[in-house]
Amino acid sequence: MLSLDKQHDPLTNKNLIKQMRKKHAHTESIDLKTSENLFKDSSKKYSAQQRNSLEWIKYATKSMVIKKAPYYDVDTTDWEKDEQDNIYPRWILKLNGQYEMLYRYIKEEVNVIDYGAIGDGIADNTEAFRKAIGKGRVIVRIPEGKFVTKGIKLPSWTILLGEGKGKTTLQLHDDCPKSEWLITNKNHFKGNRNIAVKGMTLDWNIERLNPEEKSSAGNNRSSCMTFANVTYGWMFDLEAVNPGLHGFDVSSSLYTYLGDGTRSRGGSKYIWLDNLNGYGFGDDGITTHHSEYIFISNSHMCDPSGRSHKKGFSNSNGIEIDDGSHNVWLLNNSTARCFGGVEIKAHHNASAASNVHIYGHLSVNDNRSYNFRHIGHHKDIDPESKTAHHISATNLFSIAPIYTELYKESTPRSLVVSGYNHVVINGLTVLGDRTYNYDGHPLIAIQYRAHNVILNDVVVKDFTTSGPAVKVYGGPHRANDVTLKGIRCDHHIIKAIDIASDIEKAVTDEIVIEKETSSST
């Protein structure tokens, strides 16, 4: 069975996913086209249901910190594929143009050593970095070594460039407060633009805290790296070690919780995160808030500490697309041993993440491999979510989801969809551990007022103690309008699907449980 440790090279994810999909021999182009067609067809249904149903709350007195999050009539996944077989969101061309512009605007290249920095893991290099960075328009090179600092603030038009993960290390000083970022942009409220950070390990130095102390200070602080109100940014080839809150955060100036249908002002946009590793995070490895046009690719997050939460109640996810995020693409990422592998969500008093598209993901031993939900908008007595809509996912792998002490009362699941409208999953492979006790629980749950959900091409194997492969929950909080097509289970599964009798519309096709063969063990 596949095992992904802290040193896993996420640049191998693409080939791993291709190898694991070989048995179901679709090409990437066919998979993308299938997902696009399913998404387009179901978006017509979504638009007809929703176009006139959203009555937005007016927050005139709060307009300085939030803005209305309007409904967007989304009918495309917006994936493209170039002649070199690379998959990317269509808008990435705009970001690439800004990357070239960043280099054209650079006036000089300096080495932080020339400003007095010492990479011995002891000296305080805060002033050396401040002088080297200056007012920006500079490439600041950092050689191999461990450079201690009390935090680095980057102005616009700046590149911070190390020698690679494990070679160049930045570490927070022992005297830093819990609220400090290791790296962030200089002006969270006025905003910054065109900033790139590449090639280094970021150590938040959690050892400076009391072991029993909660590791985060609140809002968007306490992380290894945060872009807050940044337009055009790049986080490339980085490793985040033991942050108090998040490894990598694409954020607004502040996280706001002023109601579904609102989004915080000062969000970031056009940000690319690639080849990132992270572990030991107090909350999430990679997270986004109130920001848009974000591309997360070839990254691996694993083994959170959960220390920003009360013990046993840690919603620590490998990758979390959170409150107010919009237009987010994830490509060939992986997660391991988190509460959630990929969670797309929002708190009850914020807008849900919307228009999120995933291609290729490896989830290994996460408690909930894929978890899509808008908290507080699930029950029949709750208000219906105004913003929880538009998710597509292609070629997902859920490998042996297991119980985790991070969230002590949560049962393992491969996929959970709650409260979201217009969700297309095309290609989900669920591989179990025959020795693990799943205690009769379902592997995939469509529940809590989820609407217009399509599962296509699902393979389930090696679960000897689970309940149904797919369960569609009924009752007063029932799901509705669910299509299950091409669900193939091996003989260990007793029941492929379990659809409550009060579901108003459920379509099934090609549901198969394979017969046991003489060679089975």
Question: In angstroms, what separates the terminal alpha carbons?
Answer: 16 Å
* Average pLDDT figure: 93
Which structural category fits the helices and strands?
A: mainly beta
Rg of Cα set:
23 Å
Number of strands: 34
Uncertain stretches: 51-61
Oligomeric form = single chain
Q: Percent range for helical residues?
A: 10-25%
Largest sheet: 18 strands, parallel
Strand content: 35-45%
Morphology: globular
- Number of continuous helical runs: 4
Q: Could you explain the architecture of this structure?
A:
It contains four helices and 34 strands. The strands form four sheets. It has an 18-stranded parallel β-sheet that branches. It is globular, with a radius of gyration of 23 Å. With 521 residues, the protein is mostly beta strands. The two termini are 16 Å apart.
Observed structural traits:
521 residues; mainly beta; 34 strands; 40% strand; RHGA/B-epi-like_pectate_lyase
Summarize the structure.
Keywords: Lyase. With 521 residues, this protein is mainly beta. Helix content is 10%, strand content 40%.
Helix-strand layout with pairing:
Elements: H1 13-21, H2 28-50, E1 66-68, E2 79-81, E3 87-89, H3 92-105, E4 108-111, E5 120-124, H4 126-133, E6 138-141, E7 145-149, E8 152-154, E9 158-161, E10 168-172, E11 183-185, E12 192-203, E13 225-228, E14 230-241, E15 248-251, E16 262-264, E17 269-279, E18 286-288, E19 292-297, E20 300-302, E21 317-321, E22 326-336, E23 340-346, E24 354-364, E25 368-374, E26 389-399, E27 413-418, E28 421-431, E29 444-447, E30 451-461, E31 470-472, E32 480-489, E33 497-499, E34 506-513
Parallel strand pairs: 4-6, 5-7, 6-9, 7-10, 8-11, 9-12, 10-12, 11-13, 12-14, 13-15, 14-17, 15-18, 17-19, 17-20, 18-21, 19-22, 20-22, 21-23, 22-24, 23-25, 24-26, 25-27, 26-28, 27-29, 28-30, 29-31, 30-32, 31-33, 32-34
Antiparallel strand pairs: 1-16, 2-3
